[in-house]
Design a protein that fits this description.
The complex is a heterodimer.
Chain A: E1 3-5, E2 10-14, E3 19-21, E4 24-26, E5 31-38, E6 44-50, E7 56-58, E8 64-68, E9 73-78, E10 87-95, E11 98-104, E12 108-113
Chain B: E1 4-7, E2 10-13, E3 19-25, E4 31-38, E5 42-49, E6 56-57, E7 65-67, E8 73-78, E9 87-94, E10 105-106, E11 110-114
The chains are: A mainly beta, B mainly beta.
Chain lengths: ~110, ~120
């Protein structure tokens, strides 16, 4: 069965600094990968997804992620964060052959300070 | 479009009481899901449905039941609530994991407290 590990539960960073949120997955088959963002007291919304093709995926709000099959990673990056990026970020995985559900990581809380 | 609507938004139950959480979507999605979110544990799948009349167990199904009698509605029931079921519950829907342009569409959550 697939699983997702988000290595950092919290990431504090100053405004305009770069940030990387780490995600590693475990699966015996090929996967689809996703990043979701949850702002305070809201549901989750899709940031970006990797289905196939280019391993560098660009999403909303200036975020991007790179799929690395050999390292089974899908790290999320942003070159310059804003206060408004403060939120919880979830990585999720689905097996290509069993696409009826996503398995989520435990989340990383990004806190951006002025 | 309303998207995914969850009812109620907040509820306090006493141990042993029962309740039903309602999820309604107006996007004609085939797939619907119930997750619970707890601090430090992320989202855990309770039950899901791949179409009207179907349900399947997720990671943490014990103590919950579900029904999908109509395509647009997915109900989550707690027959005898326990304090361990205090959580934020999220409903989500999708065409499928890969073909939906927006992935899952989530509701805004139901905050349930069992005392």
């Amino acid at each position: 069965a697939q699983s997702v590990t988000q290595l950092d539960s919290q990431v504090p960073v100053f405004e305009e600094a770069p940030v990387e949120l780490r995600c590693n997955y475990s699966s015996s088959v090929s996967v689809y990968l996703f990043w979701y963002v949850q702002y305070p007291n809201q549901g989750l919304q899709l940031l970006l997804k990797y289905l196939s093709g280019s391993t560098l995926v660009k999403g909303i709000n200036g975020f991007e992620a790179e799929f690395n099959k050999s390292q089974t990673s899908f790290h999320l990056r942003k070159p310059s964060v804003h206060i408004s990026d403060t939120a919880e970020y979830f990585c999720a995985v689905s097996d290509i052959g069993n696409t009826d559900k996503l398995i989520f990581g435990t989340g990383t809380r990004l806190q951006v300070f002025p | 479009n309303a998207g995914v609507t969850q009812t109620p938004k907040f509820r306090v139950l006493k141990t042993g009481q029962s309740m039903t959480l309602l999820c309604a979507q107006d996007m004609n999605h085939e797939y619907m899901y119930w997750y619970r979110q707890d601090p430090g544990m992320g989202l855990r799948l309770i039950h899901y449905s791949v179409g009207e009349g179907t349900t399947a167990k997720g990671e943490v199904p014990d103590g919950y039941n579900v029904s999908r009698l109509k395509k647009q509605n997915f109900l989550l029931g707690l027959e005898s609530a326990a304090p361990s079921q205090t959580s934020v519950y999220f409903c989500a829907s999708s065409y499928s994991v890969s073909t939906g342009e927006n992935g899952y569409t989530f509701g805004s959550g139901t905050r349930l407290t069992v005392v």
